[in-house]
C-alpha cells in the first residue's frame, strides 16, 4: 500500500515539473496576455478546489476496499444494518456546497470582467474577423488593411476582435492569448484579447465546419509597436487591394495560404453580418462604435 | 377470475371514487389513462418548442409577407368557433356515455367528427390561399415556422378524426363497455388538449399577428 | 437504360473505398450465413414466434442487449479507426471525408444506439422483476419501442453502404447541415434514424414511469422502491421532458432539408442558433438520462456486494430527483462561447456546478455503504469500484468546464473530449457493464466467467486511462476536436500516440468480453438457486431465468430490500407456492404488429432520406393502418391455466 502512495506522489511531482517545464507546448497554461492569465488562474483555482475533494475520495476508497474486504480473518467491524448518520451526511452536503460557492463567486466575477477590455493597458485596437470555408479573413478598420490566415498585433495593447462568419459557424481561438468565441453568421460578437510578449502564436478554428476544417489555423504575430506600424505601412505600399470580386473569390470553399491586402471595401464586415440575418438580431451592443468606451479607459 | 392475477394489477386505490367509473373498471384502464396523460405532457412540450421557434423567428420575413399581411379575421375566427364547439360536443359524448346512452354517444361523436372536418377544411383552404399568394413555407423563416406550427396542430386534429371514426365503429359494434369507455374517455382528453393548443395558436399566432 | 441504372447505383451505393467494399462483402456474407443457419436449423418459425413477436419484457430486454453490444462493436471500430488515423501526424490512412463520417457515426451510435438501448435492456430486464410485476404497463408498446429503435438504428447504419454516412458531427449544427453546405443523403439518415428510434425512447419513458408508479407489488411503497427503480423514475421523467425538444429540432431540420424551408438556414431569415438551443435542451438532459440509471445500478451492486443496506437511502432518492430537475437548467453551458451575455453565462455556469453537489453526495453514500460492510470483489463490484475514481475525476473536470471563463479555453478542445469520455465511459459504460454482469445470471441462467472478465476489466480500465489522460494535456496544448490530422511541429505526436495505444487496449478488453460470453455459454456456472449473489431485491427471489409470468404468486412486501428481508424472516417464494393454491395468470398475447409497424416506419424513413415521397407516404400509410388494426383488436390477452403454472414451478423445483 505504502509503495503505491509513494509512486503516486512521485508521479504527481513529475507531472507538475513536466507541465511547468515546457511552456511553449502548453499555451493554455502559459498564456502571454492578461485575458489568458485570468482564465489560467481560474483553471488552477478550480483544479485545486477539485483536488480537495478528489484526493480524499480516492484515498478513502482505497482504504475502505482494503479494510472491509471479504476475507475470513478480517476483524474489521461488520454492521449490515448501519445505514444512516446525520452528521456524516451533513458533512458531505456541506463541503461541496462550500466549494461550489467559492468557485461560483470567482466564476461570476471573471465572466463579467472578461466582457470588458483588460484594465490598465495600452490603447485598444480593433480587428474584424470573418470565418469562411476554410480560411480566416481579418479586417483592420483603423488601419484599412486586410489579411488572410494571419494577423499582426502590437504587443501590450488590448485587441477588440469583432467576429462573424460568412459560412458555417466556426470558433475563433488563440490559446496563448485567451479563450475562444464563436463566429456566427448574422451575428457580430466581441472578444477582447491581449498579448504582452512578442512572438508568433497559433490561432485556430475550433468548431467543425466540414471537409477542410483541420486546415483552418492561422498565425498570430505579436510585434513591438514600431514593428507593427511598419508592417501596416509595408502592407499599404506593397499589397494588392481586396475588391468585392476578390472577396467573392475568397468565399468559395477551399484552402488558401496567407494573403495581404492594402485595402478592402469599407462596409464589407457590416454587410456580411446584415446579409446573413444580422438585421433580425439585436447586434446593437456588439456593432456600436466602442471608441467612446475606449477613450474612457 | 381473481383480479390479483392480472399481469398488470394496479396499486389498490386508497379511495375508490374513480374506480367506479366504467373506464377505470378494467385492469388496464387506470394505466392507459395515466400513460395518456403523460403522453399529453410530451406533446405539450413538443408544441412548446414549436411556439418558441415561432416566436423567435416571427419577424424574420425576409421582405416577404408578414403575419399582418396574411391573416384574415373571419377565417381563423370560424376555425376557432368550430373547434371550440367540437370540444363541447366531445364533452357531451362523454356525458352521454356516463348515462349509458349509446345512440346519443354515437351521435355526439359524429357531430364532433363533422366539426373537426369543418375545421380542417377551412384550415386547408386558408393554407392554399396563402400559397396562391406566394406565401409558401420556402419564402421566409416566418412562413416556415407558421406552416409548421399550425400544420402540426392540423395534422394532430386530422389524426384525431381518423382515430375517432375508428372508435365510433367500435362503439357501434361492442356498445358501451369498459374498453370502449376507456377509448372514448382518452380521445376526449386528446380532443380537449388540441383545443387548448389551438387557443394558444389563436392568441400567439393570429391575434398577435393581426394586432401587431 | 443500363447507363441510367449504373449512374443511379453509383450514387446510391457508396463506392470507391476498399474498406467499404470489404464491409459490403462482410455484410452480405454475414446475412447469407444467418439466413442459411436459420433455414438449416428450421428456426424461422421459432424466431418469429419466440422473439420477433414477443411482448415479454425479459426477451425484449435481451434483444436490446444484443443490439447494444453489436452497436458497441461498430462504435468501437469507428473509435479505433480514428485513433489509428491520429496516432501519428500527417497520416493518410483516412481522408478528411471519411474521418468526418466516422467521428459522426461514432458519437451518434455510442450515445443513441449503444448507451440508450443498453439502458433499456436493463430497464426491461430488472424493473418489472424488482417491482414484483408480471410485465411492464404496456407490453405491446414496449415491443413497438424496441422495433422502432431497431429499425432506426438499421436506417442509420445503412448509410454506411447506401447513400453515404452523415459527416457533420453527432451534434449536427446548422448551417453546416443545411442543403447549402451538405447536399448528400447522409444527414437525412442521421435525422430520420434518430427520429424513429427517438419515438421509441419516448414511449419507453412513459411505459416505465407508469409501470413503476402503478404496478408495484402490494406493500412496496415508493420509499421501499429499489434504488435502481428510483433511478429509472428519474431517467424517465427526463426522457419525457427532454425528448420532445429533440423531436422538434430534428423535424425542423428535416423540413429545411426536404421541403427547402428556412428554420436554420443562413438566408431568408433562418436562425441556426435556434437548433443549437433545441438540441441541447434535449442534449444535456440526455446525459443524465443515461447516467442516472447507471447510478441506480451502482447503488444495487454496492449494497449487494458489501452485504449491507445502502447508506442514506433517502438522500440517494432526493439527490436523484434534484439532478433530474436541475439538469434542465444547464443546457447553455454547451455554448458559453456563442455570445450569450455575462449574466446568462453566469447563471448556467453556477447551475452546472450545482449538479456537482448531489453527485458528490452520492459518491460519499456509496463509499459509506461499503464502510463496515464485507466487500466481495466480483465482476459487477469491480466495475463499480473502478467507476468511483474515474467518475470523480470526470465530474471534477466537468465542474472545471462549468467555470465559464475557463471554458473559453477548454471548449472544443481535447480537454472536453477527455472529460465527456471519462464521464460517459467511467460513469455510464462501466455502469452498463456492471449491470450486465449483475443481471446476466437472471437473464440467461448462468454466470459469466470471472477470470476472463477480470482480463477484460484490466485491459479496459488501464486502456481507458492510457487513452484519455493524455487527451487532457492535448487540450492544454490547444488541440481541437474533430481534426482529421495534424502536423508534427504542433508537438502533439507523443500524447496522441499514447492515446491510440490506450484505445487498442480498450479494444482488447472488449474482445475479452466477447470471448467471455462465448466461453460462458458453454462452460459458465449454471445458476440453480436464482440468487447467485445473495441479492436483496425481488428479482433474486425467483428462478433464473425467470419464468414467462415472473411471479407465480405476487409477493407481499414489508420492508425495503424486500428479498433480503424475506430471507431474514426465513420466508421464500417457494414457501408461498407451497402454502397457496396456484391460479390462472392473465398475460398479454404476442403480436407481430409492432415489427410490421416498425418496418413501415423504416420504409417511410428511407423514402424521406432520398426524397422519394411516394415511398415515404406509403410507409406512413402502413403505420396508420397498423395503428387502426391494433385499436380494433380485442383479442390481445389470454390466461395461463393454473395447472401450467404449477407444472412450470415444479419443473423449476419451486413447489
Automatic annotation (TrEMBL), chain A:
A single BP term in Gene Ontology: ATP synthesis coupled electron transport
Q: Which GO terms describe its molecular function?
A: copper ion binding; cytochrome-c oxidase activity; oxidoreductase activity, acting on diphenols and related substances as donors, oxygen as acceptor
Per its UniProt record, what Pfam families does this chain match?
Answer: COX2 (PF00116)
InterPro entries noted in UniProt: CcO_II, CcO_II-like_C, Cupredoxin, CuRO_UO_II, Cyt_c_oxidase_su2_TM_dom, Cyt_c_oxidase_su2_TM_sf, Cyt_o_ubiquinol_oxidase_su2
Lineage, top-rank taxon, reads Bacteria
Subcellular location, record wording: Cell membrane
Q: State if Signal is listed as a keyword.
A: yes
- Its Enzyme Commission number? 1.10.3.-
Question: What membrane topology is annotated for this entry?
Answer: Multi-pass membrane protein
Q: Does the keyword RNA-binding apply?
A: no
Annotated Cytochrome oxidase subunit II transmembrane region profile domain ranges read 20-118
Where would you find the membrane-spanning parts of this chain?
42-66, 87-108
Catalytic activity, as annotated: 2 a quinol + O2 = 2 a quinone + 2 H2O
Print the keywords alphabetically: Cell membrane, Electron transport, Membrane, Oxidoreductase, Respiratory chain, Signal, Transmembrane, Transmembrane helix, Transport
The terms describing its cellular component in GO are: plasma membrane
Grouped into one coarse class, the protein's main location is: membrane
Residue ranges of domain Cytochrome oxidase subunit II copper A binding in the record: 122-234
- Cited function: Catalyzes quinol oxidation with the concomitant reduction of oxygen to water. Subunit II transfers the electrons from a quinol to the binuclear center of the catalytic subunit I.
Its family remark reads: Belongs to the cytochrome c oxidase subunit 2 family.
Identification of the protein by name: Quinol oxidase subunit 2
Phylogenetic classification of the source organism = Bacteria, Bacillati, Bacillota, Bacilli, Bacillales
TrEMBL record, chain B:
* Enzyme Commission number(s) from the entry: 1.10.3.-
The portions of this protein that span the membrane are: 34-57, 73-93, 105-122, 142-163, 184-207
Q: Which InterPro entries match?
A: Cyt_c/ubiquinol_Oxase_su3, Cyt_c_oxidase-like_su3, Cyt_c_oxidase_su3-like_sf, Cyt_c_oxidase_su3_a-hlx, Cyt_c_ubiqinol_oxidase_su3, QoxC, Ubiquinol_oxase_su3_dom
Q: Which domain of life, per UniProt?
A: Bacteria
Tell me the keywords, alphabetical order.
Cell membrane, Electron transport, Membrane, Oxidoreductase, Transmembrane, Transmembrane helix, Transport
Gene Ontology cellular component annotations, sorted alphabetically: plasma membrane
What CDD domains does the entry give?
Ubiquinol_oxidase_III
Top enzyme class, one word, equals oxidoreductase
| Catalytically driven reaction(s) | 2 a quinol + O2 = 2 a quinone + 2 H2O
NCBIfam families the record matches: CyoC, QoxC
Protein name as it appears in the record: Quinol oxidase subunit 3
Species assigned in the record? Pullulanibacillus camelliae
From TrEMBL, chain C:
Which pathway does this chain act in?
Answer: Energy metabolism; oxidative phosphorylation
The membrane topology of this protein is:
Multi-pass membrane protein
Q: Which domain of life is it from?
A: Bacteria
Gene3D superfamilies from the entry? Answer: Cytochrome c oxidase-like, subunit I domain
Domain named Cytochrome oxidase subunit I profile: residues: 40-558
Provide the GO MF annotations for this entry: copper ion binding; cytochrome-c oxidase activity; heme binding; oxidoreductase activity, acting on diphenols and related substances as donors, oxygen as acceptor
For this chain, the family text in UniProt reads:
Belongs to the heme-copper respiratory oxidase family.
**Protein name in UniProt:** Quinol oxidase subunit 1
